Write the structure tokens for this entry.
Amino acid sequence: MPTLFERIVTGELPGDIVYQDDEITAFRDIEPAAPVHVLVVPNEPVATANDLEERHDAVVGRMLRVAAKIARDEGIAESGYRLIVNCNEHGGQEVFHLHLHLVGGRSLGPMLPRPRKG
Ligand code: AMP
């Protein structure tokens, strides 16, 4: 079964695609958490960060550079942004096709709420 994101990559499902090449696709998150919220995915599905192998090193590196290019195109490179990869249950991963969240366009606050002391 193709993943949800694979179906967006191939055009079988609609997606607001902002970047695509033969290895990588980026599209706007359907439920944005910030004014800019784009998902950057490898066209060839990898379920989670745990499943990455040496052969994926180049495409994962390019995903970072593509995210930085999109940040520039969206006008948020200078103000700043956050790149997030969620993995499995504790990471809150919902779609099991590796993806990089590019979020920005507002101040995002602390990275994570810290557990209260005492
Ligand atoms: P994660 O929790 O890291 O797996 O993130 C999955 C993300 O995919 C969530 O932010 C969802 O809002 C987003 N999402 C789910 N379905 C779609 C879709 N059809 N098009 C775009 N984004 C989606």
Observations:
- The radius of gyration is 15 Å.
